[in-house]
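Budget justification aside, the reviewers requested a transparent look at the raw inputs and outputs of the sequence design task funded under Objective 1. We therefore reproduce one unedited record. The lines immediately below are the structure tokens for a 205-residue chain.
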């Protein structure tokens, strides 16, 4: 029996690892695909996907979208976000770019961190890390955000600037300019440290 065998399904946030090579290459658990107008989120209690809301707008996610396990946006993440009062209390979000579209959610992928942007949602830091699928045939060689066409990055930023317009939560959303790979790695590391502080007894497996 392999040492990392899980007898039961692990919780995708608490039961999986951020990745042995984090913050450069991380594990990402995908919740949403570019083909679905329903917004899903992992239920924090059970670890299963729960419908958050139908997206009433016409815009679909421009890429797969999920989070990095064993990360948490609290004081360290907020300190890196200009104007944030606090972290949003969720795992760190990740937007995954790949040559071939990923058509299903609830999967684990290896993602190379390239950059991201800070979103302030009702005063809380809600960063979006932008990454590429590791060993992707087209984007696998990317090492910086500048290696990705600007149009792809702007499409992601535009989606997050408008995707909450149909939500019952009409809190103001502010999106700053994108940041590069070094800043993104600092944020991933800060989110891992925030997680370790808030969930000190949480062990994967």
């Amino acid at each position: 029996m392999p040492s990392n065998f899980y007898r039961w399904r692990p919780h995708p946030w608490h039961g999986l690892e951020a990745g042995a090579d984090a913050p450069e290459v991380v594990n990402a658990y995908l919740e949403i695909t570019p083909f679905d107008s329903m917004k899903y989120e992992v239920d924090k209690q059970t670890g299963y996907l729960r419908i958050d809301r139908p997206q009433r707008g016409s815009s679909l996610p421009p890429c797969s979208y999920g989070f990095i396990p064993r990360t948490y946006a609290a004081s360290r993440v907020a300190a890196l976000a200009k104007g944030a009062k606090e972290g949003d209390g969720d795992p760190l979000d990740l937007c995954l770019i790949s040559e071939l579209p990923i058509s299903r959610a609830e999967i684990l992928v290896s993602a190379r961190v390239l950059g991201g942007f800070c979103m302030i949602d009702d005063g809380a830091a809600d960063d979006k890390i932008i990454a590429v699928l590791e060993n992707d045939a087209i984007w696998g060689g990317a090492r910086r955000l500048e290696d990705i066409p600007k149009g792809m990055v702007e499409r992601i930023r535009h989606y997050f600037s408008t995707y909450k317009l149909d939500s019952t939560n009409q809190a103001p959303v502010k999106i700053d300019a994108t940041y590069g790979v070094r800043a993104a790695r600092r944020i991933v590391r800060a989110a891992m440290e925030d997680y370790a502080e808030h969930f000190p007894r949480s062990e994967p497996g």
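The first strand starts at residue 25 and ends at 32. The helical segments are 75-79, 150-162, 181-198. Computational costs for records of this kind are itemized in the attached budget.
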